Amino acid sequence: MEIPWGQIFLWLHITIVAACAVRVLYKQHNIGTAFAWLIVLFVFPILGAGLYLLIGEPRLGTARAKRTVEMNRFYRDFAERYLADSQLQMSREMANRYHGISRMAAQSTGLAATNSNAMTLLNSTDSIVDAILADINQAQQSCLLAFYIIEPQGKIETLLDAVIAASKRGVDCMILADAVGSKNFFDSDWVAKLRRAGVEVHAALPVGLWRTLFTRADLRNHRKILIVDKKIGYTGSFNLVDPRFFKQNAGVGEWVDVMMRCTGPVVLEMTAVFYADLAVENDQNLSGVQQYLSGYSEIIPAMIPDKLRAGQIDAQVIPSSPAQQERVIYETIVSAIYMATQKIVITTPYFVPDEPLLGALTTAARRGVEVTLILPEKVDSLMVRYASRAYYPMLLAAGVKIALFKGGLLHAKTMTIDDDFTLFGTVNMDMRSFFLNLEISLAIYDKGITQQISHLQQGYLQDSEYITVKDWQKRAKWWGLVENTVRLMSPLLWDFTRDTKAWRPSESFQTAFSFLAEAGRAVYIASVAAKAISGMQEKVIRNGMLQPRRLD
Hints:
This protein is α/β, with parallel strands linked by helices. It is 49% helix and 17% strand. The chain has a 15-stranded mixed sheet, with helices on both faces. A two-stranded parallel sheet has the order 7-14.
């Protein structure tokens, strides 16, 4: 009897497509995204199912998810146990309009806004490294480092030597570096050198062909955190790289970064983020972190009075992760933009927004808010440059000012609202940072710090050139076609091309991933189109329009 392979294949195809379609309808809450995936599943049945299983959902793995649930309890227990004191609540000086943002972030992360913080803005590589070195050299209890990129060259070698020296004199030293972003670091002899000195070195989100079948390889830990003695904390845009050596062949100049040195209750929140990231990597880390922190159960309360005298700044640590149901940093950004009444200034190296963020910026400009985007003239990805430019006509038409920074790759991620709110940290204005990366931001509800960062932004503007509508319209028309085409692929322009050129997987894995990325772009193209159609339909219904409006 001849086996009916055609029928078997057909029924297999129907079963697989039906199962994936049910999962899409169950998991994908965005209508446009769900619609796009359904199209891919039915047009490319076997390939579409494989693509969805590999890149359709932000999967961090079942075991990691369980550890994440446990560490989320840690977030909340930590805040309730050590930060619930009335003295650590928001000061009365904080503008009432920001209480909603603070409350929203706290509900998502368990980390509330606190007062009595002090902060120092560091805006050059020398000032950043010198401050970090000074604090590490004076460390007495612990030194915790979590960075997306560690490149042991130049000044960074001196910094790593300081960590080794701290470990040798009895300081608990731990390094958590992203497995992809810090590939060169893990391939160097520095890891063995650090471990011999007693420094714990861990890789965040390891990648591999087998792991790709169960987790998404493009989900990265993009945080930059340094904590010394649980009393001093750093975060911002600065990776552990020396710009004199880092990506010198990219043709973008030296990277321009900023960091914030913090003391006060926010440092305890940053510490919670670090230990949570460390713990969820594996079961051994989880038990080790729990045991380690238990030894500080009596010490931490004794530290709080000192921190209360640090300063008068109201601030909040906001970590984000694809494991969270809420997109807390993204929601914070959009909410703050809608609250602006006078001005908005944003610096970001990578600007590829989605439709709601784009709408928030253009709406703010139309209602009279002075909106300024400061972007680097050159970035280390040609595709990203073109994708960003596709948004310029819409922004310029709405009255948004766009300034191109000419003094290198402006890597600072800052947003100031009016004169009393700042968002400062690791988050780029792109969908990867919003939805896929592990990020950290400081929400700063303070006029003094906002004024300092505004002054820094004005300094960037002095080394920038504004784009005018007139000059932009003079360009060849075909450039618009190129940019809009690239824009459709923008959600996947960030895979491993932005800060991770040092990552060189095996040839077979690289080929396989490239294929998946290219195929995945089709999914996102359909998704973007579906979202656009859906958005137009909503506007028609909402405004009662009978005739379609032209979208320029």
